[in-house]
Specification:
Elements lengths: L23 H21 L4 H9 L18 H14 L1 H16 L9 H14 L2 E5 L17 E5 L2 E11 L5 E10 L6 E7 L5 E4 L13 E11 L3 E5 L11 H39 L13 H29 L6 H26 L10 H9 L8 H14 L6
Helix pairs in contact: 1-3, 3-4, 3-6, 4-6, 6-7, 6-8, 6-9, 7-8, 8-9, 8-10
Amino acid sequence: MSALPLRRPSATPEEETPSTTVDAALLARLSAQFAATAADYDRSGAFPQENFEALQANGLVGLVAPAAHGGGSATLATARRVIAAVARGEPATALILTMTYLQQHALTRGDNRWPPQLRERVARDAVERGALINALRVEPALGSPSRGGLPSTIARRDGNGWAIDGHKLYTTGIEGLTWLAVWARTDEAVPRTGVFLVPRHAPGVRVIASWDHLGLRASGSHEVIFENVAIDIDHAVDLRAPADWAPDAGSQTDIDAHATQQAWMVVLLGSLYDAVAQAARDWLVSFLNQRAPGSLGAPLASLPRVQEHVGEIEALLRTNRVLLDDAASAVDNGHAQPATDSGLLKYTVTGNAVRVVELALQLSGNHGLTRQNPLERHYRDVLCSRIHTPQNDAILVGAGKRALLSTGVAA
């Protein structure tokens, strides 16, 4: 992996310099390259293989992997800028990369319990071969584990290893993954839950190509069936009693590590959807400057009402930039927000991003919903922000309870 210069975490895109960050010109080139084929991937739903080849060729797949294993040990601020640039071009690629970055960062957490040899193997696979990894957690009956409950996916001891049977949904990037971090429970009398590291092409792993979504279509978030999938004994990389997985369980180190991981997730996903909104803004500005109805005799951009709404878009995007930059800087300086605050960040940033694209559609009229224009795709993509954990209802209930408890009102 080639060395990539870094920028101070709090810098805005306008302040980028080659000496302080992942090269801004490189990110701009990749963003434009990915944007050129984004509509094709949206129509076909194919895995964006060429995009990941370009990312790997420029040392970006292993960017967050630990430096001890050849990775970049990138800060959250640096990872955020990469995800934003990729998403501005093709957001499904950015989503798959985000999931890999989150798993790479988890390898460095203070509460990480993976065997050292497997941490190194996953990291070096990313650096040397561009290997991708994601967590497989959602199930037909369970839904998202963040809502509670035991997984139906079961791991049982089988000789000198484990055998896994189960069914997972929404396995983002499955067609291009190398490693699957599978959430499952043991078949023991007192079951434990945790993560089992499964090679994507292990015998018994079967993909059902069911992903036919409104947005982020190239993410390939298909279903996966596990049928007697055999893995080595040490691939049960983190097993705990179910109660020990609670965010407030364990030592202070465990609690802080969870808060930091939550912040990484929210900042990277927020950066992704904010970038979609930025792409919508860019198209809108070009459209408004070029569109000159005969009844007006001037571009739409000359109308005060249009200028006011574009000003609102600029305010929303600036708010997002400040919030995301500040959150990334805080994490990189060892001051991760509590999970409740991270949730509120996600609520605000994604809500602003959706509002930006809605305003763009309002100003562009039928043109914005025409398939030959990218704005309708940006709208479909940005709406996916509401689905990611934590969802809005959980965010607001958590924040409301905290506020009420602080005054002694809530039970």
